[in-house]
Amino acid sequence: MLAASGAALTLALAACTSKDPLAQQANAGDNKNYIAGDGSVTEYAAAVRTAPVDFTGKLFDGATVDAANFPGGVTILNFWYAACAPCRLEAPDLQALYTEFSAQGVKFYGVNVRDEKATAEAFERNFKLTYPSIIDKDGGVLLALSKVVPPQAVPTTLVLDKQGRVSARILGTAEKGTLKALITSALAEQ
């Protein structure tokens, strides 16, 4: 009797989700009801940049990241989550840029705004990402950065200068050549 009840419940739930428009939309991956960035790039002149970013966060491995340690080098923050189609699109380019620039001291951090640890780690394995990600399901990092420059969409990529200030923001998919130029520019600053 218990097995029959469980089977009936499974069938009922499957029937509900197959007709659920939100589930169908999520499976379609067409980004409806999704605030996608348009790929616009904003660069901030050194003279008008705000104070260094200020936040702490936990990485998926349990380590703590403190933005107070960012000054001295260029840092890239990429806001993402696993089901975000543009995040999937840009992931290989972010990894390639991390590989290219890490020897020059450029730090990369993903800022995962939605996923549980297992989902985020599966995404990182799938795309062979080797830079760490901050858990931000509570929105603490997002809120702290909104005081400086609002990310406004996922994905958003921020380039922090050697003083820990936002020097550039990309809303939407970070094109590899564009992000490379922004990193190179930030590295060249005194």
UniProtKB/TrEMBL annotation:
**What are the protein's UniProt keywords?**
Cytochrome c-type biogenesis, Disulfide bond, Isomerase, Redox-active center, Signal-anchor, Transmembrane
Q: Which terms in the GO cellular component ontology are assigned?
A: cell envelope
Q: Which PROSITE patterns match?
A: THIOREDOXIN_2 (PS51352)
User: What Gene3D superfamilies does the record point to?
Assistant: Glutaredoxin (3.40.30.10)
- Would you kindly state one Gene Ontology biological process term found in this protein's UniProt entry? cytochrome complex assembly
Q: What are the Thioredoxin domain coordinates in residue numbering?
A: 46-188
Entry's localization field:
Cell envelope
The source's domain of life comes to Bacteria
Q: Which CDD domains match?
A: TlpA_like_family
Q: What name does the UniProt record give this protein?
A: Thiol-disulfide isomerase
Name the Pfam families for this protein.
AhpC-TSA (PF00578)
Gene Ontology MF terms: antioxidant activity; isomerase activity; oxidoreductase activity
PANTHER family attached to this UniProt entry: THIOL:DISULFIDE INTERCHANGE PROTEIN DSBE
